[in-house]
Task: structure prediction
Amino acid sequence: MAVIKTRDLTYTYPGATKASIKDVSITIEKGEFVVLTGPSGCGKTTLCRCFNGLIPLFYGGKLEGEVVVAGCKVVEHSIYELARHVGLVFQNPENQLFALSVEKDVAFGLENLAVSRDEMRKRVDWALQITGIEDLSERSPHELSGGQQQRVAIACVLAMQPDVMILDEPTSFLDPVGAQKIFEVINELNKELGITVILVEHRLDLASKYANHVIVMDEGKVVLDGEPRGVFNSEKARLIGVGVPKATRLYQILGENGIRLGRVPVTSEEAASLLREVLKRD
Amino acid sequence: MIEVKDLCFTYPTGVEALKGITLTIDDGEFLAIMGQNGAGKTTLVKHFNGLLKPTKGEVVVDGVTTGEVSVAQLARKVGFVFQNPDHQLFCETVEEEVAFALRNFGFEENAIKKRVDWALNLLDITQYRQTSPFMLSGGERKRVALASVLAWDPQVVILDEPTIGQDHQQKEKLRQFIVQLNAQKKTVIVVTHDVEFVAECNPRVVLMTEGKILAEGPAEEILTNQKLVAQASIVPPQITQIFLGLSDFGLPTNVIDVHEARRILLDILEGAS
Amino acid sequence: MSMFEGFRFRRVSSVIHRLDPRVKFFFVCVLFVTAILFSKLPPLILLFFVPLPFVLAAGVQREWIRSMRGALFFAVIIFLFNFVFTYFSTQYPQLPSASLLERSLAMTLRFLVLVESFSVFFLTTSPDHLGLALEQSHVPYEFCFAFTTAVRFVPVLADEAQTIMDAQKARGLELERGNFLKRVRNYIPILIPLIVGAIRRSLELAEAMESRAWGASEKRTNLYVLKLKNADYLLAFGSVLMLIFAVYVWRYVPVPTLITLLRL
Ligand SMILES: Nc1ncnc2c1ncn2[C@@H]1O[C@H](COP(=O)(O)OP(=O)(O)OP(=O)(O)O)[C@@H](O)[C@H]1O
Ligand SMILES: Nc1ncnc2c1ncn2[C@@H]1O[C@H](COP(=O)(O)OP(=O)(O)OP(=O)(O)O)[C@@H](O)[C@H]1O
Ligand SMILES: [Mg+2]
Ligand SMILES: [Mg+2]
Result:
C-alpha cells in the first residue's frame, strides 16, 4: 500500500523564475526505507516540504500536480493535520529544539494536539526510551552534544507517532560513529515499528545499507528510482555525480577490468564476501 | 612552519578543551585533523592564527609566538576558512566580499583589483562578481568564502569542516583544489570527520580525542588501524573495511583507496590465473 | 560573554528551587511591599536578613554575592544622591546630622532589599519553571512561548556572535581601530551576518514548529501542571502572616529610628 504518492508534482517558490521540482511522480510504499539523494540544490528539501504541507501552506508559491500522503490530499489539509501522519526532522538540530528541557520539547507536538496528560506522559517516555535518551529528559538543549540533540529532535517527531518520518540530512554535523548511531535508531524505527522512513543523505557509504528504495534527483527531476543495487550501479548515477558507496564503485572498477562479482554490493560486508568467493575460486 | 608546544587551553566557562598538544606542521604539508565531536579540533586550529591564545604552552608560527602578535598580523600568513560561510559573508557583491580582507590588510587599489580577479577566477565564480553573496547556493557561498581568504595568498590555509552538506562533485572539486594549493607549496590544514574524503586525499592525519592527540601519521596507516579509529569515534573507510574482512587471504589491510584496491586485487587474481 | 552568563541557568535542585514559582513570586512581592512601607533603618535591617536563609538553603550564595556586588555600585549612587540632595535642600549650611545619615542609609538599604529579593527569585527559579508559571497564570501561550524561546536562544546567539567575530578577525578586521565613527562602522561585518543568521534561524524554527502541529487546537494541554505542595502552602501562609504583621506595625506601632534605639 502506498503511503506517499505524487503525480506530476511541479513547484515554484514565490518570486522564483524557475521551478524547483519538476514533474515528480513517485510512489513510496508503507514500511519502506527510502534514501533520497542527488546533487546540492536539486530539490530534495523542497520535495520533503511537499510531503507535510509546508509547501504550499507555509511557503506559498505555485504547486501543480498532486501529492497524497497517508490517504490525505496534501493541499486539502492543514499542516497540523498532516503532522499526525508525517514527521519532519531537519539538518540542524539546534533550530528544532525550542523548549528549555528535553521532555518539554518532546511533548510540544502532543501539547499542540491537546493529548491528555496521562497519554502524553506515556508517549513522551516511550519516545525517549526508543531513542535512548531517558537519562537526558531534564536537561536543556544547550547542555547536549550535537548527536544527543539530533536524537531529541527524532524523539520529538516520534512522540507524535507518525506513519512516515522524513529526515533531511540529519547527521551532517556528527562524527561517523555518532552518525551511525543515529542511523541505527532510524533503522530500528523502520524495522521494528514499521514506520516508513525517507532519509535525505549525501554520504551514501554510511546510509545506503539500510535502504530498500533509492531515489536520485537532479535539477528538480527524479532521474533514478528503484532498488539500491540497480540505482547505484547505473551509468546515470555516475554521470550525475552521485557519491555511490565505495563498495559499489569497487565492483564497477573490477568489472571494467574483467572481474565479475556475483551481484552488486552496497556494504563492505557484502563486497568482502563476494570477493571472498572470487578469491577462493582461484 | 607551525610548532605547537605542550598547548593547553581552557575556555572561560571552565571547559578544558586542549590538554597538552605537541605538534609540528612543516611548510607545504597537507594535514587532516580528525576526531569526534567536541575533541577540540576547532579549538586547536583557532590557535594557529591567534584567535585563541594558549592558557599554557605556546604556538610558534614561522618563528613568531602567537601570544605576542595580533590576529590581523598572523592572519596575513594563516588564512582560516570557517565552516559556515554565512558567518562571514556580509557585502553587497561577491567582488566586495573578496576585497574586504585585502582592504583590511592595506593593499593598494590596483593590487586589490588584480587579486580579486585572480581569486574569482581560481574558484570559478567570476560570473557572480556583481551578484549578492546571499543569492548564491550553499556550495557557491562556500567558494566565495574560500576566495575571500585565498585572495591575500596566505602561506597556510585552514579549512574547518569544508565538506559538510556538500555533494560528491563539490567534494571532488574541493579535493582537486586542495591538491593544487598543495602543489604550490602551501600548507593546507583540513579539519574534518569525513573519512571517505580523507581517504581520497591521503594526507597526513592527526587523530584527536578529548583534547589530546591520539595518533598521527599517514592516512593509510591511521585510518586502517581499527583500534585508533574506534577511539576517535570514526569508522574506517569502506575500502579498508572490505580489506579487513579479507585479511585471512593474506591481503594487505592498509588500503584506503579504490584504485589501490583494484591494483592489489588484479595482481592477485591475474597472478593466480 | 559574561553579560549573558546570567541566562545560563545552572540546573541545581533544592527545596527552594522546587517551590512553586507563583508562591515564590508572591513572597517576593510581600518583601517588596514591606520594604516600601518602612522608611526607618531597623525594620529594613531586619528585612534584609529575611531572604538569607533562602539563599543558603538554595546553595546559591556565590551567585547571590555576585549580584549584590553588582548592585553595590547603584547603592552607592543612591546613597550619595539622597545624602547630598537632602543635605543641600534642608540643612545647609549646618553640619550633616546623624538622622540625615540614617535616612540616606535607609533608602539605600531599601534598594538593596528589593534587589536582594528579586535576585533570590531569579537565582532559584529556572526559566522553564517560570514559563510554566506564566502559562498557568493564564498569560497567553504565544507570550510564554516567546519568553522561553528567547531564554533558549540568547546563549546560542551569543556563541554565534563570537564565531562571527572570529571569522571576521581572521579576515583582518580590527575592531579597535580608528576614530569613534570608524569603530562603529567596524561592527557592520559582524552585525549583518548576525541579523541574517537570526532571520534564517527564526524561519527554520517556524518551520519546525509548524511541522509539530503548532496551532492545532485552541486548548493546548500541558505535560506539567504546577501543583501546590506542603512547602508551598507553608511559604504562602508565612508570606500572608508577614504581610499582615507588617501592615499592623506600620499602622499602629510607632517605629523607632536606629538613633533612638541606640539612645535607649
Ligand atoms: N525558500 C526558498 N525560496 C526560494 N527558492 C528556494 C528556497 N529554498 C530553496 N530554493 C531553491 O530551490 C532549489 C532546490 O533547493 P533545495 O533546498 O530543495 O535543494 P536540496 O536538494 O535540498 O539541496 P542541498 O543538498 O544543498 O540541501 C534551489 O535552486 C534553491 O535555490
Ligand atoms: N566558545 C566556547 N566556550 C566554551 N566552551 C567551548 C567553546 N567552544 C567549544 N567549547 C567546548 O570545547 C570543547 C572542544 O570544542 P571544539 O569546538 O574545539 O570541538 P571540535 O573537535 O571542533 O568538535 P566538532 O567536530 O563538533 O566541531 C567542547 O567540549 C566544546 O563544548
Ligand atoms: Mg536540502
Ligand atoms: Mg569544530
